[in-house]
Amino acid sequence: MKKRMIIMALVIASVFAFMAGSSQASILLTDNFDGENGGVGSLNYNSFANWNVTGGTVDLIGNGYFEFYPGNGLYVDLDGSTNQPGLFASNTVFSPGEYLIQFTLGGSVVDVNTSEIVTVKLGNTTLGTLTLPWTQPLTQYSFLVTTATGGSLSFQNNGNDNMGAILTDVKVSSVPIPPTAYLFVTGLVGLYGIGRRRFKK
C-alpha cells in the first residue's frame, strides 16, 4: 500500500511539473516578412526564410516597391506575376494540438472592383475561406483551431490575374492547458490525500 502511495505521489508531481511548463502560450512562428531579401521587394519571390511556395508564385512587395500599404514594411501578394498564384505554406510542420493563428490580410488595392478569396488551412483543417474586396484595408484575423493531424499553415489565393490579397504579420501560438485540467489534477491530489489517511488508519 505504501508503495502505491509513493507511485501516486510521483505521478501527481510529474503532472504538475508538466502543466507548469505548459501553462503559458508560446509563440511557435512569427513573421512580418521585413527581413526578406535584404528588405527589398521582388516579384515571384521564393526564398522565404519560413515559407515554401509551390504550384505557382507570390510577390514580395512594399518598402517603396509596389507599395500598396505605405508604412507597413514588406508584405506578400498572394497572387504572383505568372498568372498562377502559389500555395504559400510554412516550413514549420505543426504537431496535432490546439493553436491560435493570427495574421493580417488586405485587399489587392489595384484590382479594381474585384474580390480576392483566400483559403487558410492548418494541415487539412480549413480555418476559413475569406473574401476580401479590393478596397479592404489591412485587417487582422484570429482563429483558434484544434488539429488532430497537424501540418503546415498555408494560404491559397484563388485569383490568377497577378494581383492578389496582401498578407503580413503572421503568428502561430500554442494554446495553454485549460483551467479544467488543473481541476483534474486537484482531484488526483484529493484522492491521494484520502488514500493516505486510510493507510494511516
Q: What's the number of helices?
A: 2
Give me the CATH architecture of the largest domain, please.
Sandwich
**Which class do the helix and strand fractions yield?**
alpha+beta
Mean pLDDT: 85
Number of domains: 2
CATH fold descriptor of the largest domain: Jelly Rolls
The oligomerization state is single chain
Radius of gyration: 23 Å
So what's the overall shape? globular
Q: CATH class of the largest domain, please?
A: Mainly Beta
Main β sheet profile: 6 strands, antiparallel
Span between termini: 12 Å
Low-confidence segments:
5-22, 179-189
Q: Percent helix among the residues? A: 10-25%
Q: What percent strand?
A: 25-35%
User: Can you count the beta strands?
Assistant: 11
Order of helices and strands: HEEEEEEEEEEEH
What does this structure look like?
The protein has 201 residues and is α+β, with helices and mostly antiparallel strands. It folds into two domains: 2-21 and 180-200; 25-175, Jelly Rolls (Sandwich), CATH 2.60.120. The chain has helices spanning 2-22, 179-200, and strands spanning 27-31, 51-54, 59-62, 74-77, 87-90, 97-106, 116-122, 125-132, 139-147, 153-157, 166-174. Mean pLDDT is 85; it is low at 5-22 and 179-189. The chain starts with a helix and ends with a helix. A hairpin with a 2-residue loop joins strand 7 and strand 8. Strands 1, 3, 4, 6, 9 and 11 form a six-stranded antiparallel beta sheet that branches. The chain has a five-stranded antiparallel beta sheet with strand order 2-5-10-7-8, with no helix packed on it.
